[in-house]
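Exam revision sheet. Question 4 asks you to relate a sequence to its structure. Input first:
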Amino acid sequence: MMPAAINTTTPGCRPPLFPVCFPRHNPCFLANGALFSGLSLVSTLNIRTFPLPVRAIANSNQGNSDGSNRKKVLKSANISTFAKALFNFTLTNFLPIALISGVVLGFSNPTLGCLAHKYSLSKYSTCGIFFISGLKLRGGEFRAVAEAWPAGIFGLVSILLVSPLFSRLILQVQLAPQEFVTGLAIFSCMPTTLSSGVALTQLVGGNSALALAMTVISNLLAILTVPFWISNVFADGFGASIPTGELFWSLIFTLLVPLVLGKVVRNMLKGLATYIDQNQRIFSMMSTVLLSLTPWMQVSKSRPLILMLKPKGFIEAMGMGILVHLTLLGFNAIAVKCMSAGFGGGESIFSKKENFRALLIVCSQKALLIVVAVVDQLSGVVGESGLLVLPCVVAHINQVIIDSVLVNFWLWKDLSYNKDFEA
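Answer key, structure tokens:
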């Protein structure tokens, strides 16, 4: 006897729940997806596995409603997952996205950018960035640097005195327009980046206190060293008078004063300090938005000249910026190894993995923000400001990409070592 058919159209008899699960975000891909760490934007939101209950609604008057409803729910879930992944990607890569967006906006519609440049908005945005940096600046980290002070001194010498010497070699290259070469030469005279170096150092487990100390001190001392290098390297080559005094005071009022003011406000308002520490990402994104205003204004102003450029010259400048950063990485790696061999070998401060990684990352990066402040103050003495800044924006993005790949390699190497050790 055949069993009786089950009536699936009875309201009391519904198909059971079936879970729709979505995979976790892969934590092994570029350290939680951090291709660009940017301004402390190295942590991302994980797309976690979650069950999505879906019930088939039985209706005798709708023939294939169960399948269509399931497809609709699956489609909606896929859209939701894609939106979360897109949001994750935007947060992780906020720095390059903001910089590229500024360049594209300035090139496509230069009217507002030219108006902002006319009223010197870049100076106010620079002050805002360093004021936010002062608000985020803690005092306890510097006490942790006492043990690694020889490494810190080496880092400052490499950043402020050795790497600017590469600018003389860069100026020997002939490109069209020559402002691309000049911009990269100025870029090599700058101190280290304000936060991406520290963020990458934290991500890879390096000595973040040492990285932060070198970042803050090098940017403060740059007020003295940058005018010196600009006047000595570029004055002879261009036959122009570099306004060293004006440049010095401009850096004082746009960099140092806002930084100190932000630190004072932080110390006076303890509640504000706690709020800032708990919302680092928000303030980092604010700094990034202010930073992106600069390429927007510079590109808007120089759009007619940019339209006259040949793509070949821009690609060559991009490759040259990559070569400069790889050269700095190679030089600092060899120099740190030599210092390690000369000061105790395996027991040296320089041989410690966390110090080596902090030195290699921080000493090889250059700050885009101070380039902008310097170029603005030069007022066209060494070339068109937009053409000077454009290769520096590209070089800044490239150095973050390269160092993110290096950080991911180190993380993969550490993971492999831990697995072998446990085995």
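Marking note for examiners. The two ends are 61 Å apart (CA to CA).
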